[in-house]
Amino acid sequence: xxxxxxxxxxxxxxxxxxxxxxxxxxxxxxx
Length: 31
Hints:
Helices cover about 75% and strands about 0% of the residues. It contains 2 helices and no strands.
């Protein structure tokens, strides 16, 4: 389910510079 959230968050964040740190946070949460 978290994958769906990441895809939605990635869309608007892709334009923002803090997209990488957010993705890292999500990856950490997944683990």
